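> Could you send the 3-methylitaconate isomerase prediction when you get a chance?

Sure thing. Input:
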Amino acid sequence: MDALYRLPAMLMRGGTSKGLFIRADSLPEDTEQWEAMLLRALGSPDPYGLQMDGLGTGLASSSKVMILSPSRRDDCDIDCLFGHASIADARIDWSGNCGNLSAAAPLFAMLENMARPADGVATIAIWQANVGKRILAELEVFDGQPVWQGDFFIDGVSFPGAPIRLRFLDPCGVSSGELFPSGRLMDELKLPDGSHIEATLVDAGNPTVFVRARDFGLSGREPAGPMPLATLRRLELARATAAVAMGLAEDIFAAERERPAFPRISFLSAAADAECQLNARLLSMDRVHHAYSGTGAIALACACAVDGTLPAELAGGAVRGMPLTFSHASGKQTLEAVLGRAELGWSVSEVVMTRTARPLMRGEVYIPPA
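Output:
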């Protein structure tokens, strides 16, 4: 790229995340150019951690891109490719999906005339190209336009919006083909420092590692933001060790180098609040997530539904046939996993959650020449 590139894009909020939404046909035909362009658009890499010279804000929840196109599949309306950009480093992790930003995908599709449902409650089928899974997004349409204004609140977002119901179909096995890729409901991980911790390794929504907060000197009620470096490093070692046990990386060095965003790690504790079954905090790009990722919530709901997992133990028993409500750094979230037992293991037919979303700005991103 040897000239200024003006990239049509829309800045959108979906759930508790923000990101750049871009039509695939607005990008160069040479896909090898995409990553460098998108990193420059967001302002990465930035050793100061602020993304000051781009549209990112220095937070993992807003250093994201979604690339969309009309679907090539008969059973979907749109195809989505999600990228989670590192803030300090020149890399984008394309291995997972964003459950929160998925709520904004049907709005973008309608505003860009990729989907034209009739008025009323419409269903838009989304193909998650990163993980090969489908989402059914149910939202209201009025006068041919998506409705995003309403009085439905989600914790972590200051203003209300219209509810968008997301049904994540068959969400397990996105990377390994199995809900529990190690073949066990509880694993004992040996960390490089010689210590041992128990963990449940789940591959649903996105690969996620669940550990007890107390094993890391934590309460499970930590606020959003940075953590002590020693605690953060030990959590990262646990995450990288789990990635190897899940078959996602050859060794912990490859896990840290090639899969910085996925699997995620979440630390849990039993809840004292009668409205919640447990407390959950999630690390995202070396910080406690200001709320909780949508795909992490999917993994948590699936794990809580199965007796013998660490999350189910902390929840006081399997949460099955009813919604799961858990606390996060900004409040609470409720969702439900519809889970059954297949011949060769557990199966999840769908996980259902409700989010809000809206467009924030539409225009062109100026991308300087490399």
